[in-house]
Amino acid sequence: MISLPPLPFSEWSETKDTLHLYLQIIGKIRMKVHPKLNHWWHVTLYPHVRGLTTGRIPYGDSGFEILYDMLDHKVVITRNDGHQSEFSVPGLTVAAFYEALFSRLSDMGIFAQIVPVPYDNKSTTPFPEDTRARAYDAAAVSRFWRALCRISSVFEIFRTRFAGKQTPVQLYWHSFDLVVTRFSGRAHPLEGGRQSDREAYSHEVISVGFWPGDDTFPEAAFYGYAYPEPDGMNKVPLQPANAFWAEKNGGALAILKYEDARNAVDPSAAILAFLDSLYDGAAVKANWPAGDLVHAHA
Fold first, then answer.
1. How far apart are CA 115 and CA 67, in angstroms?
2. Span 112-170, pLDDT tens digits
3. Which of 77, 139, 161, 231 has the fewest Cβ atoms surrounding its Cβ within 10 A?
4. Has this prediction a pTM greater than 0.90?
5. Does the bond joining 240 to the residue before it have cis omega, within 30 degrees of 0?
6. What CA–CA distance (Å, rounded) separates 177 from 276?
7. What are phi and psi of 127, to 5 degrees?
8. Where residue 41 falls among pLDDT bands split at 50, 70, 90?
9. Nearest CA to 57 among 34, 36, 85?
10. What are the Cα distances from residue 77, in Å, to 67, 82, 83?
């Protein structure tokens, strides 16, 4: 059984916005340098024992990693040869963070040219020009990390029950959510949308995740959905009892509020019940070969 720290949105929303922009800069570097993977898996960040990491990024005949340490609040860049550089984060503007990161990469012989503007974010100021003071509550960032770490562990248990193609537990820096996606194995190309959307949704998926809230939904929550959405999706019974269906971009979105999971007698059991009920119900509605996709040793 896990315990989850409090994450009241109103108390750290400005810090969350700061952290989101920092992570977009790191994520754009991974997206630019890492060899392209299907469904844009090359852009994501991964849970690490101290924060979030790019993982190893191949670079020439070597490689490097960028770690955002959410306990000591620093960024650490490490090359394959053991050479390392780091800088402290608190108090930095977005522009100063951008400069500190790219100058250290350059000193280490690592060069990446990104589009230096936020992606799908309420801030539209280019990173090098964003010089206004930014909130950074280090304790709140560490609480968020502890939540991510514990949720990641539950998501890993959820992954063990599936034998088909699925993502690792990964954080999408543009939308700032921790995600696990399962695939039926059947193609279903998305019509319209952006190129990135069409690549992400080229096959049938059932996806679950966690996000810390935003201005339109100001509280942390777990969620789930299916693509393509089967008829009657919002009629799938959800567990635990306080989970519910909402509408997002014209589709059905299953929701379990973080606070409801946190206050459950067994938070990990409540989260798993939500994930399983969403997947089991959606797989039936979408006529997935669910029996063939069960991990026999789970």
1. 21
2. 999 999 999 999 999 999 999 999 999 999 999 999 999 999 999 999 999 999 999 99
3. 231
4. yes
5. yes
6. 19
7. -50, -45
8. confident
9. 34
10. 6, 10, 8
Give the residue-averaged pLDDT of 200-224: 94
Cβ atoms of 223 and 255 within 8 Å: the answer is yes
Whether 98 contacts 115, CB under 8 Å: no
Residues 166, 154: Cα–Cα separation, whole Å: 15
The CA distance from 163 to 182, in Å, is 10
- DSSP code per residue over the chain: --------HHHHHHHHHHHHHHHHHHHHHHHHHSPP-GGGGGG-BEEETTEEE---EEETTEEEEEEEETTTTEEEEEETTS-EEEEE-TT--HHHHHHHHHHHHHHTT-------S-SSSS--S-GGG--S-----HHHHHHHHHHHHHHHHHHHHHHTTB-S-BPPSEEETTTTEEEEEEEEEEE-PPPSS-HHHHHHTSEEEEEEEEE---SSS-S-EEEEEEESPPTTGGGS--SSTT-EEEEETTEEEEEEEHHHHHTSSSHHHHHHHHHHHHHHHHHHHTT--GGGGB-TT-
Token reading at 194: 């952006």
- Give residue for tokens 């964003």: 130
How far apart CA 166 and CA 159 sit, in angstroms, is 8
Q: Is 12 exposed, middle or buried (0-12, 13-18, 19+ CB in 10 A)?
A: buried
At residue 187's C-alpha, the angle toward residues 183 and 190, to 5°, is: 100
Backbone φ and ψ of 58, nearest 5°: -60, 140
- Measuring CA to CA, which residue among 114, 116, 112, 111 is closest to residue 127? 116
Token pair listed for 49:
């024992």
Q: Which residues partner with 35 through β-bridges? A: none
Q: What are phi and psi of 261, to 5 degrees?
A: -65, -40
The answer to whether 215 and 200 are in contact (CB under 8 A) is no
